[in-house]
Amino acid sequence: MTDNPTAQHRAPRPLARARALPPWTLLAAGVLAGGVLGGAYGALKTPTYTATAYVVAVPADKSDPASALGFAQAYGRVATQLAVLGDAQVWAGVPAATLRSGVTTATSPDAPMVAITATSSRPDLAADMANAVSRALTRHAADSSDATNVELQQFARAIKPVEPSSASPALTGLVGASAGGLLGGMALLVRPRRAPRGTEPAASLPAPAVAADTRGAL
User: Which of 36, 118, 153, 177 is the most exposed place for a label (fewest CB within 10 A)?
Assistant: First the structure.
C-alpha cells in the first residue's frame, strides 16, 4: 500500500479548526463560561448570615484599669472553649459543636472589649448563637470576678441580620468571569498559531521510477 506523501503535511482537523478561530474567541468563551458558572454557584449556594454581640471588661474599684484590657484578651480566647459553649448551647438550642464551628471572637489591643460573631444559614439563629455565647461568657467571668477583680458586662446585643453576609450571585459571577478570562488568556498563549500565507511547505512529489535494470538494453 502506497503512503500518501502529502498526508504528513496535513494538520489534524481539531488543530486546523483552532487555527481558523479568531484569537479573541478563546478569551470571550472563558469569560462567558466563568461568569455563568460563578453566577450559578452564587445562586444555588445557601446564603449565610452573620450577627455580632459585644461584651466589655470592667475593672472593680480596687483593680488597675489596665488589667481589664489583659482580661479582655484572655476572655476572648476562652469564649470558644467547651466550658463556655457547654452553657451557651442550652440557650442557643444547638450543639456545642455547631457553636464551635460557627462562632468566632475578636479583641482590640486598645479597648477592653470582646466581639462575638456567629454565622449561620438562618438569620435568627445567628443572633441567638452570638447572644448565647456572650451570656455564657459573662456568667463565667462573674464566677471568677472575686479573684480577677474584673467582670464582663454586655455592651451590645446581637440583632437579627436583614441581609446575608455571603457573596451575592452578581459578585460570584464577576469572580467567575475574571477567572474564566484568565484561563482563556492562558489558552490563547498556547493556542496553535496559523502559519503565514506563502510559508506552507510544498507538497513533495514522488520521485520518478528508475528502470529496474538497463544493462541488458545496451
Answer: 153
